[in-house]
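Methods — Computational structure assignment.
A single polypeptide chain was analysed. Its primary sequence is given first, followed by the predicted tertiary structure written as structure tokens.
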Amino acid sequence: MTITEIAAALGAEVVQDEFEDVEITGAYTSDLLSDVIANAKEGGALVTIQAHKNTVAVATLVNVSAIIICNARPLPDDMLSAAKDEGIAVIRSRENQFTISGKLFALLFAEDV
């Protein structure tokens, strides 16, 4: 599924929409950015509540294509600007990380289960 398709399926808001609408191959959920650096996979989505510029820097480092911010957190302008500069999608959901992670798993891997 593409980033846009995932956002629509999750009922989430695409906040930073200047990105290449690529296929998402997986996801990683964590609020500890050093954990994301160590374990997130290229081409995936990052599910987190960490809504700040450093999240974009980490996503860029590991080549994550989209950041999904949960719990309807406010998004600072410098984060959105950095994401735009890097071409990383920023999506916001009202739901928590557990719920979004479960829904993403079902969307991306339902056929494999």
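Note: Residues 59 and 65 are 7 Å apart (CA to CA).
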